[in-house]
Structures are given as structure tokens and as C-alpha cells.
Amino acid sequence: MPLYDCMLLLKPHVKKEALMELVARIGKHVYRRNGVLADMKSFGMVQLGYGIKKLDGRYYQGQLMQMTMMATPNINKELHYLNKEDRLLRWLLVKHRDTKYGLEFLSEDDGKGELSKFTRSSIYDDDDFDEDDDDDDDDEYDVDQEEKKEN
Predict the structure, then answer these.
(1) Model's pTM, two decimal places?
(2) Residue ranges of the domains in the chain?
(3) What's the CATH number for 3-106?
(4) Over the stretch 120-140, which tens digit does the pLDDT of each residue have?
(5) N or C: at which end does the chain have fewer Cβ atoms within 10 angstroms?
(6) Three-state SS string across the chain, please?
(7) What are the Acidic residues biased-composition ranges (predicted)?
């Protein structure tokens, strides 16, 4: 089963009990489909970049939650009931790509030591950096100014 992140942006006035009830309902839905809720994070109150208009007004703040879950690929279609949820401003389901888990994860070295192949001089190569590119233009400007003053 693939790994998904479900981001929930709730209205700012939603109580903690109602928030936990919604999260529990999503968790039960995933569990009934043989999925696993791996992690939950609350980012608290966040300021939005623009107002989100709903029937009861425009919101410039929201409570942000993230739920990480392993679920079947049709979980996106199954969570569309969240569109009718009046406590939510937005929700988004993001699938983790190229995530290794289970036996695939244990057999990999997880890329450890990949950076050790590079030496410090090849990463921080300062030879190509030229600081005095714009100094030549100043001399031409000074000559033009002197010619105008003489005329």
C-alpha cells in the first residue's frame, strides 16, 4: 500500500473536540479499508496567503493538520465525502512517490555515503567566480562625462 499525506485546513473557530472527531472519522475510514494511520501532526493556527470564501464568510486563518497513512490507491475517491464537510476550508491528499518500505527499505543502504564521493574542493569551486565584471563600465562612463564637460 502506498503512503499518503492528507492535509486538512479547518476553519479557525472549530473546537478541538470537533477537530478530533473529524480526524477520528477519517482514521476509522482508513482502518476499515485495511489501511494504517502512521502519523498525525497539528501545525496549529496558520495565516493564509489569500482569503478562502465559504458560505458563512471569508477566512484568512485556518487550523492545519497533517495525517500520514498507508492506504489503498482508491482512498482519494473514498475521501470525497470531505467536500461536504462544513468545518473544512480545504483538504488535499498527496501520494509519496518512490518511497521504499518493508523489505525494499531494509535491503537498501538509503544512499548513505553518497556525499562522501565528492571532495570539498569539487563542491565549493571558487575558481569560476569573477568579482570585477562591472568595473570596466565605470571607466567608460567617466570618459563620456569628461567629453560632455569639455563641450
Answers:
(1) 0.64
(2) 3-106, 120-150
(3) 3.30.70.60
(4) 565 555 555 555 555 555 555
(5) C
(6) CCEEEEEEEECCCCCHHHHHHHHHHHHHHHHHCCCEEEEEEEEEEEEEEEEEEECCEEEEEEEEEEEEEECCCCHHHHHHHHHHCCCEEEEEEEECCCCCCCHHHHHCCCCCCCHHHCCHHHHCCCCCCCCCCCHHHHHHHHHHHHHHHHC
(7) 124-145
